[in-house]
Design a protein that fits this description.
alpha/beta; 6-stranded parallel beta sheet; 5-stranded antiparallel beta sheet; 13 helices; about 20% strand; binds L-homoserine
């Protein structure tokens, strides 16, 4: 057991206790002592913003910690880190901006809000001298953002390409391997917590476009509004398309890609026919994979679960601990 040390305690609020918020809470509960031992951070979930409190109670969150009023969290000076897991662009963006204005660090898996409001969220973090992290916004549990920003920081990137949506990859895999109809697999993906509340963004490629916009900003220091990325989804792919690909030893995958050549950026999201030689050919089910090419490192690929409560929660917890370490350093400076 570890001694409770007030100086190591970091207080969190989680906004939204759906798939990702719930997964994050459970990982923190299960790994509290491990995180304290490894990172020296004593994480405390002190408030939860929940639309339906019963869901929060079922997770074992005490009644006094649950609120349906954002002000209870924004006005609470003891809260160090706000985890925004309600999704959607608004009110999520306003809540994040207000939290930063109150001096709180912000962690989010919200790709739609981060991609749409890239500049204002980053400016607010800088202005208020707080940490803003969003590792879970791209590739679920895959630590691609931290890798690009930190470990691969010395590279000029020329290409980023990947499978960025777990739901559509799950649908395409089950249609091909198990002969299941589109609608049935989509329902299954929703039941498993892979799909967004409205799965249109998943199957029409918009979710992948949001993630590609974030990767472009990180790799190429350019902002591309996700709405301007040429995007096609998988909703019109039928069994005949899948069988015809199989006959040619190919697979249909939803691919997001961006390339920088002589200062000119090209990018797109859409279904592509992949051959066995392609590094993305064997990335199946809800798995995602992202390949980046840098002038120093060459091509590097990361693969892992791109959707679901625990893989995504894993990335959120990593960001929380990172933000908390910075908070503790400042506290003890
Ligand atoms: N709905 C998303 C997906 C969740 O299927 O990839 C993870 O961002």
């Amino acid at each position: 057991m570890f001694m409770k040390d007030k100086n190591k305690s970091v207080k969190l609020a989680i906004l939204g206790i759906g798939t990702v918020g719930g997964g994050t809470f459970r990982i923190i509960e299960n790994s509290h002592d491990l995180i304290l031992q490894r990172a020296g951070v004593d994480l405390r979930v002190s408030r939860v913003l929940a639309r339906s409190p019963e869901k929060a109670y079922r997770l074992g969150i005490p009644e006094k910690a649950v609120t349906s009023h954002i002000e209870d969290i924004l006005e609470d000076d003891s809260i160090d880190v706000v985890v925004e897991a309600i999704g959607g662009i608004e009110p999520a963006t306003s809540y994040m901006l207000k939290a930063m204005q109150k001096g709180k660090s912000v962690v989010t898996p919200n790709k739609a809000a981060v991609a749409k409001n890239w500049a204002i969220l980053h400016e607010a973090a800088e202005k208020n001298d707080v940490t803003f992290r969003f590792e879970a916004a791209v590739g679920g549990g895959i630590p691609i953002i931290t890798s690009i920003k930190e470990q691969l920081v010395g590279n000029n990137f020329t290409e980023v390409r990947g499978i960025l949506n777990g739901t559509s990859n799950y649908i395409l895999t089950k249609m091909a391997d198990d002969n299941l109809p589109y609608d049935e697999v989509l329902k299954d993906a929703q039941d498993k917590g892979f799909a967004e509340a409205d799965p249109t963004a998943d199957v029409e490629g918009l979710d992948a476009a949001n993630k590609l916009s974030i990767l472009i900003a990180l790799c190429f220091n350019m902002y591309v509004d996700p709405e301007t990325i040429p995007t096609r989804g998988i909703s019109r792919i039928n069994e005949a398309d899948i069988r015809s690909a199989e006959e040619n030893k190919q697979k249909i995958k939803l691919i997001a890609s961006a390339r920088l050549e002589e200062g000119k950026l090209t990018c797109k999201v859409g279904p592509e026919l992949l051959t066995e030689e392609d590094v993305l050919y064997n990335v199946n089910d809800e798995y995602n994979a992202i390949s980046v090419t840098g002038d120093a490192v060459g091509e590097i690929m990361m693969r892992g679960k791109g959707a679901g409560a625990f893989p995504t929660g894993s990335a959120v917890v990593g960001d929380i601990v990172s933000a908390s370490s910075t908070i503790l350093l400042k506290r003890h400076a």
